[in-house]
Amino acid sequence: MLNPPMNPVYRRRLWSHRIGIALSVAAMAVGLFFLLWILFTLLIKGVDAISLAMFRDTTPAPGSDGGGLLNAIVGSLMMVGAATAISTPVGILAGIYLAEYGEESWLAQVTRFVTDIMLSAPSIVIGLFVYAVYVANVKHFSGWAGTFAISLIAVPVIVRTTDNMLKLVPSSLREAAFSLGAPRWKVALMVRLRAVKAGVVTGVLLAVARISGETAPLLFTALNNQFFNADMNKPLANLPVVIYQFAMSPYDNWRALAWGGALLITFSVLGLNILSRTLFSQKVPN
């Protein structure tokens, strides 16, 4: 009998393993190279625009110097905050329903199917849907329309995350609660949800990170506003659309602000992702 190092089958499998590892490392290196290239370019060109004026002044007029992104930052915070407040309870409750009653109800199966479709739907389609349903009927763009659009993007993320996290709860916890006479709704809310609260918060943070940089839906809903505005019933400035418009402009000052805004969004989303991974590292109790 041949020794393992001399066995042709062993050697063939060893070489296949080495080639697979080499290809995997090469693919990772290519992706990492372009990612670092993008981040490096963004950092080099965006750091010059980061200043107190960017957070203090509103967007400048075409061809003028100075200015900032105050109105866009405030508008984005308002819409993302409102969308989070709307989508979080809806998504968590829908996720609880799917996890607790998903095997028994046809409605749960339909909900899960629709959620999967919305997760993969292009954001511009959602923006067009809100435009046709809301904006075209009220005859004007508004911050509420943008909030509604990005809420539709955030809800399926929270639903799917909550559903998956609740399924990780050991059945022994549910059985122990049922044996004590707890009703089903209380078991779902007070036992299962509490056991995976870190994972559910992670889903909410991932949804916030997802909608923070969406541009296409806001082009058809909130549009933009060059001036500071806190009225959600009117067109509202927001970072993604301002970055898009400024980056396509012929003015150096606008392009510099676009780089600064892109850097701000990138590091904000990066921070949310790091925070979500930190929370997700907390294990579900056995």
TrEMBL record:
Q: Which GO terms describe its cellular component?
A: plasma membrane
One MF term in the entry's GO annotations = phosphate transmembrane transporter activity
Q: Where are the transmembrane segments?
A: 21-44, 72-98, 110-135, 141-159, 195-213, 256-275
Pinpoint the ABC transmembrane type-1 domain residues. Answer: 73-276
Q: Where in the cell is it found?
A: Cell inner membrane; Cell membrane
Q: What is its main location?
A: membrane
Q: Name one Pfam family in it.
A: BPD_transp_1
The protein's superkingdom reads: Bacteria
Q: Name one GO biological process term.
A: phosphate ion transmembrane transport
Q: Which residues form a coiled coil?
A: none
UniProt keyword annotations, A-Z? Cell membrane, Membrane, Phosphate transport, Transmembrane, Transmembrane helix, Transport
What membrane topology does the UniProt entry give?
Answer: Multi-pass membrane protein
**InterPro entries to which the protein is assigned, alphabetical:** MetI-like (IPR000515), MetI-like_sf (IPR035906), Phosphate_PstA (IPR005672), Phosphate_transprt_permease (IPR051408)
Give the family from UniProt.
Belongs to the binding-protein-dependent transport system permease family. CysTW subfamily.
Q: What is this protein called?
A: Phosphate transport system permease protein PstA
Source organism per entry reads Noviherbaspirillum galbum
Instruction: Tell me the lineage of the source organism.
Output: Bacteria, Pseudomonadati, Pseudomonadota, Betaproteobacteria, Burkholderiales
